[in-house]
Specification:
This protein has 191 residues and is α+β, with helices and mostly antiparallel strands. It has 4 helices and 8 strands.
């Protein structure tokens, strides 16, 4: 098995959401692990890289030959229940074991990692529209690490993901509105 570490250096507030809110207080909560720390689910990490790799293919930086096998896809019968397995396995992007131990000592400390931001819709007269105020929980800038591994004999997949990483500029919800600016890098893990 070949393994690589993915680092997400997040430069500003970001929001990876649960889809849940907290009643009238917060409209959207950040996804947290058992220690109360924010993380990016492995499924999200995989999706970011799949999208970025497709962009790298369109730009001619990566060939299209292996990208389908990296992430899986429709099988030969092209039915709902027929799919090819992905050969890359992504983990959640987390703050790591040291931060988890820190958080487990006192859960109240975790509150330092979160802020609340609010926004509303403004009409053409510069006035707030009724019932449009939304408050979202966001996480402060920090770095997360994930791993990706594969049993592919060639290590070309690591280089392909490195090329694709340049196309991941934002992560999380509202990334097209300025949240979640990130620099992504990949380093092969050597035993």
């Amino acid at each position: 098995m070949t393994k690589a570490t993915i680092t997400f250096k997040i430069m500003n507030y970001w929001h990876a959401g649960t889809g849940a809110g907290e009643g009238a207080h917060l409209d959207a909560l950040v996804v947290k692990n058992a220690s109360g720390l924010p993380f990016l689910p492995g499924k999200t990490v995989k999706g970011l890289f799949k999208d970025a790799l497709m962009t790298a293919v369109e730009c001619g930086l990566v060939t299209n030959d292996d990208t389908l096998s990296y992430f899986g896809g429709p099988g030969p019968e092209n039915t709902r229940f027929d799919s090819d397995m992905a050969c890359l396995e992504f983990t959640d992007a987390t703050l790591g074991d040291k931060m988890a131990a820190w958080a487990d000592l006192d859960r109240k400390k975790c509150r330092q990692l979160f802020r609340q931001i609010s926004a509303t819709c403004i009409d053409d007269k510069g006035q707030a529209l009724s019932k449009t105020l939304r408050t979202v929980e966001v996480t402060i800038p920090l770095s997360l690490n994930a791993t990706v591994e594969s049993d592919i004999a060639s290590k070309s997949w690591i280089e392909d993901l490195r090329k694709a990483a340049h196309f991941i500029r934002y992560i999380g919800t509202n990334r097209h509105r300025g949240l979640g600016r990130a620099i992504v890098s990949i380093q092969e893990v050597t035993s």
